Amino acid sequence: MLLRKSKLLIASLLILSLCFPAGSEAAAAVPRAVSVSGGSAHGIAAWSDGTVTGWGDNKFGQVGDGTSINQYIPRQVEGLSGIVQVAAAGRVSFALSRDGEVWGWGLDYSSYIENDPLLRYQKRGGPVKLEGLREVSSITANGSLGIAVKKDRTATLWYPSYDQPGVLPVQIHYLELKAVTGIRSALINGNDALFLTEEGSVKQMSIVNTVYNRIRLESDPVSVATIASSSITGMAASQGELFLLRSDGQVLRWNRGLKAPSAVAGLNNVYKLDTGFYRLFALKRNGTLWQWNYNSGVLAKPYQIKKGNQISNIWGSSGTFGFAQHKDGTLLGWGDRFDTGLATGRGTVTKDQAGYILTPVRQPLMFFVNGEPFSFYGTPSIKDDKLYVPPTSVFKALGVQVSYGTFKADPKYGNDPFTGWSFVYGNNIVQVKVSDPLELYINGKKSDREFTMNRLPDSAQFPLEAICDLLGIGLQWNKSTGEVRLEN
Fold first, then answer.
1. Which pLDDT does position 299 carry in this prediction?
2. Which CATH class, in words, describes the domain spanning 30-360?
3. Boundaries of CATH 2.130.10.30 in the chain?
4. Nearest to 34 by CA among 78, 92, 98
5. pTM for the complete prediction?
6. Which string of b and e fits 293-311 if b means at least 16 CB within 10 Å?
7. Which of 109, 332, 378, 417 has a Cα at 20 to 30 A from 19?
């Protein structure tokens, strides 16, 4: 009997080992992107653990880090949990929780916070709950307004009111769009709301009263047109153009100048659609990623994105970029704005006749100073696989005095006074002369050691590893987890 039980135990362990191969626990612990969206120049991602990260242009707080500082590395959005979908548009971001609640931040939604001791003029409020939305299953946005598809397959439009100028967040109005039911998904395209129904038809409804140039009221007359009557499984829209995905994988194009949707040559066998600014993104069933700059005479035909293979999902933006997920879970991006704050691994865009090259989106960085978690308002950056930080970041916590001004060089080395940055730690002084090229001085003596800064349009960025090495501060950067540990 004991032998039989042992054999059963061994067999059970063998089955478990086949179901959960070595390393699967670690792999399962790494969150995957479940929803990604881009505004004009920022990105938002929801992850399988329910968290949200944001990065990029942040003038109105649309990244969600509580500042109006551009963030070149993704930052976690505090105050959100259980998020299953995000939607970004222009300079605004939205998130939907598994409980059916919706949150918004950025233009019109993030309040100004004055007299912050560390960030007097650039502190912004976090996500605000849209109290008029409940039991929501999906969201879509166009600028500061959006449509929520409810779990009962009806839709509600939300939009900001400017009755009290200068007051943030603005008051949000809600309008039930009762003329269409059985809704699977929705889009906003110009003055129209577009609905994909459970039957596979596409309905069009105006959400603007063009006579009074305002969002229509519930009492205004409404008409619904049918653009496609059946067999539609997906849709995407941008700048007045509507693209439909037919059940056989063919992409159709429609606008007000066309009587009926027409097939797009070269875009068949497609699995999913999304759009950017005058761009159509398509994921084919064979895992290849395609783009069509349909408003361009140069790239008038769909083309495959370089290295756009083995792709499992795609997402668009209201800018000139998109996102894709590799089948291994890696989140990728491509487009025109990735060199100005959309946190890919590259400092510059790479493109050729076949278009843009997919590049991994950076994961958030987590800083620890002497074993304690540490955060700062400014943005870090990564260039050529080197980590850079602004002067107001980890240095003060480490006891490093940072200043900018004119410094007297050590006369025994025959150096003239110069303008630049100074880092003082104990008996060590590191100075950087602002010149082209940069000049490095160690304890007053000019050094031939190479020293580079990452020049960003809104932040001076210093090489953290190099400065810590020069000052004798311990640093460990785990590039696989994003942990940066500093010890002194």
1. 53
2. mainly beta
3. 30-360
4. 98
5. 0.89
6. bbeeeebeebbbbbbbeeb
7. 332
